Amino acid sequence: MAKSNSSLEKKITSHKAVVGIIGLGYVGLPLAIALNEKGFKIIGFDVDKNKVEMLKAGKGYIKHLDKKLFQKMLKSGNFEATWDFSKLSLPDVILVCVPTPLTVQREPDMSYIISTTEKIRENLRKDQLVVLESTTYPGTTDELMKEMLEKTGLKEGKDFFLAFSPEREDPGRKDFTTTTTPKVVGGVSKIAGQLATLFYSQFIERVVPVKDARTAEATKLTENIFRAVNIALVNELKIGYDKMGIDIWEVLDAASTKPFGFMRFNPGPGWGGHCIPLDPFYLSWKVREYGFSTRFIELAGEINWKMPEYVVEKVSSGLNGMKKSINGSKILILGIAYKKNIDDARETPAFEIIEKLIELGAEIDFHDPFVPVCPETRKHMKMAGKKSITIDHKNLKKYDAAVVVTDHSNVDYKKIGNVVPLIIDTRGVYRKLNVKAKIIPS
User: Fold this and answer.
1) Regarding predicted confidence, which is higher, 67 or 45?
2) 183-214 pLDDT, tens per residue?
3) Which among 27, 73, 184, 275 is annotated as catalytic?
4) Contact, 351 vs 379, CB < 8 A?
5) Among the listed residues 402, 425, 399, the one whose alpha carbon sits nearest the alpha carbon of residue 329
6) Same domain, 33 and 160
7) pLDDT over 90 at 104, yes or no
8) What pLDDT is recorded for position 2?
């Protein structure tokens, strides 16, 4: 190991290193659980005092986490949750797992990373390893964070160590978890990359070291841009094939029989989650500094952002066929989480669809077994605090239409389709169900 830091190495390999995790959400908490399983002491930091209080009380707020391992961590005596950032001098390793949203101009909102780095700087000491996990543009770690932290007078690669290792969480997925998903690691300095690789190899099955932090940052963006572009492609195909009277779902089923050269992506009502709708624009913004335009990425964004409008047009067309208008119609939204079988509603297309329908005069309710109360968001407030309805015959009779936005597994779609007269199906759940409702694919 270049310029070996034997003290920190020994703490890491003996699992005596104290690990600080900033951001106790969908990335931070699974990391804490995985580290606890290997005997590390963890200090979890969050600005949300409600989250910290829930953890102190032994309560969870992320449904898909393994409940046994979660409770085991809370009872282990090796986990502490706090909003006191002055304790950042205590960890030997600090993992930064904070949001990286977009501004209203669809430019990177770096406020969370900047404020977090300021807190680390105020408490930075020698021999600490700091790793950013939040998805961001290439250069964030070795330019922005390094410059801020070195204002302490400490030097990266000598006094402290800075690296980037992108989170690859897929909430709700069972086959690839925090510990079984390969972990990409890149250091600002060579020794930082080596220390970060050593650290993650203590609890993750496969660690993939790359040349530097920028390469690691670009790796994560490439993964999500690939998905965003392919989602846009299949959504555009859906619209085109629909106009031609061709079933996109049958096309995809048939195309998927080719054992090579085809990777399936399914269409939907738009994109959602904390990565796919946001990350491509981090690269688009950054490369403009180099006089380059990412036209392909911008086009994919344009298509995906417009999908909620397409869904609303389908609702309007379906109601018109029943001699009704959206204005005054009662519409049930099925699923507001951004993907099936999880409780995460960040950047969900459901909110855009709901707000457009409300603007047109519709009365909206929703049913989501994973999101019992509509959360507050920075952009969408019209449904905040509204509760998920119960699916029963009496409730369903009052709706003129239902829109399948998220295809959760534990929803009685057949019951809904036999009571509600019109279903706008954005996920293909009614393809093989025989129901009384008129089904309009969207």
Assistant:
1) 45
2) 999 999 999 999 999 999 999 999 999 999 99
3) 275
4) yes
5) 399
6) yes
7) no
8) 52
Distance, CA of 93 to chain centre: 24
- Joined together, the tokens standing for residue 324 give 């009704």
Which helix (H) or strand (E) segment holds residue 81: the answer is: strand 79-82
**Residue 246 φ/ψ region, left for φ over 0, alpha for ψ in the -120 to 50 degree band, beta for the rest:** beta
d(CA 278, CA 276): 6
Number of separate domains in the chain: 2
183 phi and psi angles, rounded to 5 deg: -115, 115
* Whether residues 255 and 194 fall in one domain: no
DSSP β-bridge partners for residue 22: 45, 96
Give the pairing type, strands 363-367 and 18-22: unpaired
b/e map of 5-39 (b: 16 or more CB within 10 Å)? beebbebbeeeebbbbbbbbbbbbbbbbbbbbeee
* H helices present in 161-287, as ranges: 190-200, 213-243, 248-255, 279-287
Q: What is the pLDDT of residue 4?
A: 62
What is the pLDDT averaged over residues 146-157? 98
- Give the residue numbers spanning the domain of 29: 7-210
Catalytic: 374? no
Query: Is there a domain that residue 228 lies in?
Result: no
Give residues with Cβ within 8 angstroms of 343, minimum separation 6.
Answer: 62, 63, 64, 337, 370, 371
Contacts of residue 50, defined as CB under 8 A and 6 or more positions apart, other chains included, come to none
- Token pair of 256 as six digits: 């998927």
How many whole angstroms separate alpha carbon 151 and alpha carbon 171? 37
Higher model confidence: residue 73 or residue 173? Answer: 73
Tell me whether residue 303 is in a domain: yes
Q: Rounded to the nearest 5°, which phi and psi values hold at 251? A: -60, -45
pLDDT at 1: 53
Q: Hunting for tokens 């694919």 — which residue is that?
A: 441
- pLDDT per position as a tens digit, 254-310: 999 999 999 999 999 998 887 888 899 999 999 999 999 999 999 999 999 999 999
Contact (CB, 8 A) for 342 and 172: yes
- Give the C-alpha separation, 417 to 401, whole Å: 10
220: in domain = no
pTM of the model: 0.92
Q: Does residue 175 sit in the same domain as residue 90? A: yes
Residue linked to tokens 């609702």: 315
Q: Are residues 201 and 253 in the same domain?
A: no
